[in-house]
Automatic annotation (TrEMBL):
Protein name, as recorded: nitrogenase
Stated family: Belongs to the NifH/BchL/ChlL family.
Domain of life: Bacteria
EC identifiers of the protein: 1.18.6.1
A matching Pfam family: Fer4_NifH
Catalyzed reaction equations: N2 + 8 reduced [2Fe-2S]-[ferredoxin] + 16 ATP + 16 H2O = H2 + 8 oxidized [2Fe-2S]-[ferredoxin] + 2 NH4(+) + 16 ADP + 16 phosphate + 6 H(+)
Keywords from the named record: 4Fe-4S, ATP-binding, Iron, Iron-sulfur, Metal-binding, Nucleotide-binding, Oxidoreductase
GO molecular function, one term: 4 iron, 4 sulfur cluster binding
Role noted for this protein: The key enzymatic reactions in nitrogen fixation are catalyzed by the nitrogenase complex, which has 2 components: the iron protein and the molybdenum-iron protein.
Length: 258
């Protein structure tokens, strides 16, 4: 089982990227589990044609010990298994708690045994990297961390904070940084700035995504680009990115097994 966590600041296109990568992996015949780790709970919405997935935190608060796997898992496009961690009522409680609860309950309800995913994708908000939001980096949940960024200063700043958190955990045997994903905003010196960020943290840009109207058009249809425009160049970019991410994770596994 390959476990990948994708981080990035809010609004950077992280969930869209993760959902399209999930679709590309499913196209290859892989069983994919996507876990949304954002209080907005909209990570998997394009895989479900706009239909929301009940959040783990909400269902656990309602059902407590009677929580069942079918309460928190829904199946989306190409058989992708969809889960949303959720978050607390605004102003009450820690948003990171939803992630911790979700990961615990997925294990307790036997999600991995039932669905036996080949790939687990964690879609994680990266504006803050506190205990809850750093959870997918720790305790063996993810093998590799990938950061979605553009050349915008706030995205670069968030990317640096996330990379620093990964760096701080590296001596504990936790997930390591797999690389950056450049989601273009067509700002000045974009590629140069993201390359500088990669150099600062001894990593690389594993994939680049063009700024394309097809992404918004697919979202209007409540679909991924791969479902809405499967023959497009944009869909092909997501397929190439998915392969590059898999290659990075497998490189690490081969080194670990050597």
């Amino acid at each position: 089982m390959i476990k990948i966590a994708v981080y990035g600041k809010g609004g950077i296109g992280k969930s869209t990227t993760v959902s399209n990568v999930a679709a590309a992996l499913a196209e290859q015949g892989l069983k994919v589990l996507q876990i949304g780790c954002d209080p907005k709970a909209d990570s998997t919405i394009l895989l479900r044609h706009g239909e929301e997935v009940p959040t783990v935190l909400q269902m656990y608060q309602e059902k407590k010990q009677n929580l069942k796997l079918e309460d928190i898992v829904k199946i989306g496009y190409k058989g992708i298994v969809c889960v949303e961690a959720g978050g607390p009522t605004p102003g009450l409680g820690c948003a990171g708690r939803g992630i911790i609860t979700a990961l615990e309950k997925l294990e307790e309800t036997g999600a991995y045994e039932k669905y036996q995913p080949d790939v687990v994708l964690y879609d994680v908000l990266g504006d803050v990297v506190c205990g809850g939001f750093s959870m997918p980096m720790r305790n063996g949940y993810a093998d590799k961390i990938f950061i979605v960024t553009s050349g915008e200063n706030m995205a670069i700043h968030a990317g640096a904070n996330i990379a620093m958190a990964v760096e701080n955990f590296k001596n504990r045997g936790y997930a390591t940084l797999g690389g950056l994903i450049l989601n273009r905003r067509n700002v000045l010196r974009e590629e140069e700035k993201v390359e500088e960020l990669a150099e600062d943290f001894h990593t690389s840009i594993v994939g680049t995504l063009t700024r394309s109207d097809l992404v918004q058009q697919a979202e209007e249809q409540k679909k991924t680009v791969l479902e809405a425009f499967p023959e497009s160049e944009m869909a092909e970019e997501y397929r190439i990115l998915a392969k590059a991410i898999l290659m990075k994770v497998r490189e690490k596994q081969e080194v670990s097994n050597a």
